[in-house]
């Protein structure tokens, strides 16, 4: 561990002392398991030595760092152990990264489509993926009893199926799982936000078939946030209440994406005509400024005119 290395962005909220204590605990965990590792501090990754075990992917540190930041320092060792034990002990005698991937029939029902931040491609280029809402990728994952792991293209190749077909299977399996629970939060003037929650790994990924959660009578679409993996935020657009909804959504999105765990996308989306359009914003200190696209400005003008006539 390089004590002079600056604290990277993914761990900034741990502070300098907390960051180095965190890295020391990570190193201690893997040392106790007799696994040689390299830590990429800039990217927040653990790379197990491929000469020790047949690992197929790297292990990210951002999520567990976010969990530690929200806990007392004396709980960090236990949190780190539980986090990585869920990976190594996911399948009994085998760990999640060494599971036999040759039998497609046995694994088919465990395949899931899952949204990941787009920068996962910088960590492992071998994933089976396609574009999700801007800033995300829809990735083929394997759902195991205690954890989730991605499927590499090399592993999927032996199944002799097109990657698009595999992702479709993963999406169908996710759709067949339990629907998300909905909580409605009223704002002023009858405006409402909906928070959809469920499986801690997959809730936000239900955005892949979001129309199943939206009413049919929404000619203007909906505002959507997927700031972290266990949360899906919605506002169904009907009137100028969308202005208040945008303010509330942006506050939630910024805070949830910053704090995690499981940070996914910092964007506010406009879901309309089957597409996700990003509504950009700029943040200066604690001030949020919207920079909406022309089509969304036109929608706001239309709704404002309707409000004036009513």
Q: Describe it for me?
A:
It is a single chain. The protein has 9 helices and 15 strands. The chain is α+β, with helices and mostly antiparallel strands. The protein has 3 domains: 98 residues, no CATH class; 78 residues, no CATH class; 129 residues, no CATH class. Strand 10 and strand 11 form a beta hairpin. Helix 1 packs across helix 3. The termini are far apart. About 2% of the residues have low confidence.
Briefly say what this structure is.
The chain has 310 residues and is α+β, with helices and mostly antiparallel strands. It has helices spanning 15-32, 62-69, 76-88, 104-107, 120-123, 153-157, 163-175, 241-259, 294-309, and strands spanning 37-40, 45-48, 59-60, 111-117, 129-131, 136-143, 148-150, 181-186, 192-197, 222-225, 231-236, 268-272, 275-278, 281-284, 287-290.
